[in-house]
C-alpha cells in the first residue's frame, strides 16, 4: 500500500512547478545587510577559516531570510533558493568570504 505524504517534504515535481514559494528574491535591505557584513569581514584581514560569527555580523533583515531558508531546509521542503546576491560586482575574494 502506498500512502501520500502530506508533510512539506513530501513534494512532487508538479508541486514544485506550481508553487514557486521555494524561490525567494533578496530585498535591497537584505542585500545591504550582507554587503555590510562582507565589508566588515574583509576589514578584519582574517582568512575565512580564521573568522568567527562576530567577524561577519549579519543585520536583522538578512538574518531573518537566512533563518527562514535554514528552517525550510530542515523542517520544510528540504531546499530553498535565494536569488539576488549581487555577485556581478563582487571580486573572487569577496565571493569566497560571502
Helical coverage, percent range: 40-55%
* Distance separating the two termini: 47 Å
Q: Calculate Rg over CA atoms.
A: 17 Å
pLDDT averaged over residues:
89
| Strand residue percentage | 5-15%
The helix/strand order is HEHHEH
**Structural class by sheet pairing and helices:** mainly alpha
Write down how many β-strands occur, each being a DSSP E stretch of 2 or more residues: 2
Name the poorly predicted regions.
Answer: none
Total number of helices? 4
Side-by-side strand order of the widest sheet: 1-2
Describe this structure in words.
- The protein is mainly α and 98 residues long.
- Helix content is 46%, strand content 6%.
- It has four helices and two strands.
- The longest helix is centred in the middle third of the chain and has 17 residues, at 28-44.
- The radius of gyration is 17 Å and the shape is elongated.
